[in-house]
Write a structure and sequence with these properties.
alpha/beta, 5 strands, 5-stranded parallel beta sheet
Length: 175
């Protein structure tokens, strides 16, 4: 299985990075082709269109990622919760799907992993709706999600780390 994991936290050793690493470990049975794209390490520009609604080419790193997503069976989006939504780093990448909509639609599974420090049980509601709308529009299948609202440090986050590992295992050859 070809898996693309997109991480998007500016906090290098933060909770969302930890959960992404645990997912990758769980999915890393040697049979999966896993590509990890950390948005912090790349230049990704905003989507731009002209008066005719045609995409304006950008000189950045996103074409390589979008080619990987086109070939992927599973797309894993990992984000910290920022003001009830995904990080701007991930949002910029998702917006660039516009350039490849016809090539990206259908025949993919998706996973969302999100972390947040809020104390309101509804903190993820907007992100959950946004994620569902993205995968519905792309005709992708929801293959699971992790919504970690309060556990950002060890040992509390270890429960979510185990969930991420098990979710990754769901995509190994034996399952």
């Amino acid at each position: 299985m070809k898996i693309v994991v997109i991480t998007s936290s500016a906090h290098v050793n933060g909770a969302s990075t930890y959960l992404a690493d645990q997912f990758i470990k769980g999915a890393g049975d040697g049979h999966n082709d896993i590509y990890h794209y950390n948005a912090v390490d790349h230049q990704n520009n905003f989507v731009m269109v002209d008066e005719d609604n045609q995409s304006i080419g950008q000189h950045d790193d996103i074409d390589h990622l979008l080619d990987k997503i086109k070939a992927a069976d599973l797309v894993v989006m990992v984000t910290p919760l920022y003001y009830f939504g995904m990080s701007s780093l991930l949002k910029t990448i998702v917006d660039r799907f516009y350039d490849y909509n016809h090539d990206l639609k259908g025949n993919k599974q998706a996973v969302m992993i999100a972390t947040g420090a809020g104390s309101v049980n509804t903190a993820f509601d907007s992100l959950k709706i946004h994620y569902k709308q993205i995968i519905d529009y792309m005709h992708w299948t929801d293959a699971g999600a992790i919504w970690d609202l309060k556990a950002l440090d060890h040992p509390a986050i270890d429960k979510y780390g185990q969930e991420a590992f098990k979710l990754g295992q769901k995509f190994t050859a034996g399952n």
